[in-house]
Amino acid sequence: MKETMNCIIVDDEPLAIEKLERLLKKVSFIKVDKTFTGSVAALKYLQTEETDLVFMDIMMDDINGLTAIEMMKTRPIIIFTTAFDNYALKAYEMDVCDYLLKPFDFNRLYKACLKAHECFLNKKSTGNNNSVKDIESRDFMFIKTAYKHQKICFNEILYIQGMRDYLRIFTTTGNLMVLQSFQELELSLPKDRFYRVHKSFLVCIDKIESIEKKRIKIRNEIIPISTSYYDEFMIYLKERQII
Hints:
- It contains 8 helices and 15 strands.
- The chain is α/β, with parallel strands linked by helices.
- The strands form 4 sheets. A 5-stranded parallel beta sheet has the order 2-1-3-4-5.
- Helix 3 (65-70) links the parallel strand 3 (53-56) and strand 4.
- The relative contact order is 0.09.
């Protein structure tokens, strides 16, 4: 299994890039492939190059980091590096790995790198042991709650909501709180049955009762479809002749 992560750095301050590159040379399991002083160039690079990890500044001259990660078709592991602490809550709602407040030292950076590496290895392990075919052939998964691994059948899931550090899974029999990221959970779900329609919501397709004005109704709940997900979601439904 590949254990070294390749990464890019996106920051509009060349001195900040230089410092981060220097510190990352001390981290044996991370390799810096490229650096960018603008989000547009970084997004273009990510369209064609496989990247495991992105260190991203938030206040950029072209597209800010929060908007940039929403525009990524396939999202790598994200660590924000910023001088502003007022975006932390928003960042975690977007399921980023860590939030480094400038100026940070090597110890703080290394903790973030270890966290990213653990996520990276978990994703690789899940990918190796659970192929798409295996997932689609199963009708259940196990999720880790506070004290145990709980079996949950796919046909019981209504929708899933992100709540800061937790996910809340709404089912036909009750709700479960899970300490897990959307990225990790999506690897365990069959792609033909579940779709993420918002940074904080993932829905079961066959539980949808109606779609109107970028809103989904499932039972008595109204779930928003964010603008950044709407077009691809509608294409997804049309390609499968659902609408």
